[in-house]
Amino acid sequence: MQAMFEFMANCGCSPGRGAYDCALHAARQVYAARCTCRDFFGAADPACAVFVPGATFGLNAALQGLLLPGDHVLVSSLEHNAVMRPLQALEKQRGIEVSVVEESPVDAVGVRSWEEAMRPNTRMIAASHASNVIGICRDLSVLGDLAVEHGLWFVVDAAQTAGLYDINVSTVHIDALAFSGHKALMGPPGIGGLIVSPRAGTAMAPLVYGGTGSQSETESQPEFLPDRLESGTMNTPGIVGLAAGIDYVSAISPTRIRQHIHSLSHRFIAGVEQIPGIVSIQSCLTPTAVVSVVPQVLGPSELAYELDAQYGVMVRSGLHCAPAAHRFLGTFPAGTVRFSFGWFNTDSDVDYTLEALAALASSLPGE
Amino acid sequence: MQAMFEFMANCGCSPGRGAYDCALHAARQVYAARCTCRDFFGAADPACAVFVPGATFGLNAALQGLLLPGDHVLVSSLEHNAVMRPLQALEKQRGIEVSVVEESPVDAVGVRSWEEAMRPNTRMIAASHASNVIGICRDLSVLGDLAVEHGLWFVVDAAQTAGLYDINVSTVHIDALAFSGHKALMGPPGIGGLIVSPRAGTAMAPLVYGGTGSQSETESQPEFLPDRLESGTMNTPGIVGLAAGIDYVSAISPTRIRQHIHSLSHRFIAGVEQIPGIVSIQSCLTPTAVVSVVPQVLGPSELAYELDAQYGVMVRSGLHCAPAAHRFLGTFPAGTVRFSFGWFNTDSDVDYTLEALAALASSLPGE
């Protein structure tokens, strides 16, 4: 917030739309943010760090920009609608084909099911790094190697993990990694990034065409990165806020943040297992920041409402924009109650939440 | 800035992704912003005010979402690349046809040239309300009536005029009005709006598909507005900042702001006409906030550089992402030096700038 406020109060200009000192200052800030993203995600070049409004836009840019008529794409069984909805639209619009690879939730890294689902026209693997419903996290390098071996685009939804895991797009062979600023990167909402490989970034048809402040003499979109994929006035306050968030996360280290959050998640799961009437659906797995539970007597939305109203505990209930994942997990259509832990939560926050859950469970009708 | 900061510090939640009180507060803020946009632009319903990252995204959503293979579209000769580049892409991707209607810069409201350019497959008129190069502003109602008469979509780029003119999309029959928050609406960069007619909003294929927090049980995009056109986490700080900007503008009134800016523009144009070596290209027209001049001895970028370096006057030189407009105006490829005046500028700002221009012109080599 402070970084955003300072930028808006002291500069507020757009990069690339003028050569006055204040515009150059904005350009330097945006370039520095690009370098921050390059370093954080191991991109080949700062130009491969494309700023987008969020993970959803980034995933749409990659899926709509890379998939051609007749292409076949493999997705995991835990995908968010940010992947499933654009793919469903592309099925209708371009006749692409989608196969959902059925994985065991306890063995999300299994390669065989992915290989078995391949066809001659398979062109892409699209997978979330971690499920936004149950937090289960996959080993990206396994799918990255598979993509390289079979000459496929590898698109990753890192909304749940950017900031919690060290992700190096170059060593893991990711062609397009989409992330949001407002989750574990501690940036503001409304900004995110798409880290592209030079090959994918150049092959990707832009989702939005328009003024880039470059090659203004032509009505063709510039071919080069990042301008090719960044049309229109940039969200400079958001970019500056995102960079400040990444700097903050880097200073602590994603590993230390993840260990803290894992510790909270495990404490929570262990506690939930002692509460009659509340079932955690992920006892044996490694969670990221999110843990889903199913209340056995009252509905997820009722439990979520009472947690907020009576205890000030804010959680999301239902399907979390991921119906495919809930179908796979057997929690469709009622969904789950999802708890998310962050760097600023403490053990006592977890204990307080467990006490609230226990009190609500014991006060259920019929108990 | 204050509104954004307060939202981030005191709420920061996303609407539609949880039912806790803080999420409902965010939802109420976003809904209030939608109502602000509905009232300001005369939309049929708050749901017809769609939040987008800016005018460029909004124009892409309208053009890509409404034009079908084989359609013909009419554009003015003063369009920005936010219109021209997506149309050029659609020419290649979908075989749409584009006709640039040649208007006289002093008579941009002439209907005959638009009617003469129509074909049996004409489906849309797309036009900027005011040119971003010379500020000339058209009477939208003339084109709106024409669109209604011929059953065409009417898409308007209001980046230069939203906040300066009273635009009522319902009475002028606009199907999609795109605007940016950061210009005369005094909001932050990175947020804008697309005001749609109910018919166009429902017909428009989404540009971005994904989670909307609604109908989470299905992998199909919701059909209803605004969710249909708003996927992914919203830029809530930007939306709150935009609404605060519109409130500020409304309290003064666009008419009063426009009169002030017109007064500054006319003072500037009259002054430029007294300076040998600097030519204003729009003496007789009604400018909005922007005025373009052409220096006769040094280049536009040199003049812009010296204005900033020696006098702290920040202007944009070149083609302003609008090569078609400059070709039409005869200022291609060198472009112009564009001055923009705002509500916070004063007569003495104009006089100071004129003195700077006169000093630079008289110090030119050879003078």
Which features would summarize this protein structure in a list?
homodimer; 367 residues; alpha/beta; Aspartate Aminotransferase, domain 2; Aspartate Aminotransferase, domain 1; 2 domains; 7-stranded mixed beta sheet; 4-stranded antiparallel beta sheet; 14% strand
Separation, N- and C-terminal Cα atoms of chain A: 46 Å
Q: Estimate the strand proportion of chain A.
A: 5-15%
Quick one: CATH class of the largest domain in chain A?
Alpha Beta
The largest beta-sheet of chain A arranges its strands as 1-7-6-5-4-2-3
At CATH's second level, what is the architecture of the largest domain in chain A? 3-Layer(aba) Sandwich
CATH topology of the largest domain in chain A: Aspartate Aminotransferase, domain 2
With helices defined by DSSP (H or I, 4 residues minimum), what is the helix count of chain A? Answer: 12
Give a count of the beta strands of chain A, DSSP E runs of length 2 or more: 11
Decide which structural class fits the backbone of chain A: alpha/beta
Integer count of domains of chain A: 2
Quaternary status: homodimer
Helix content of chain A: 40-55%
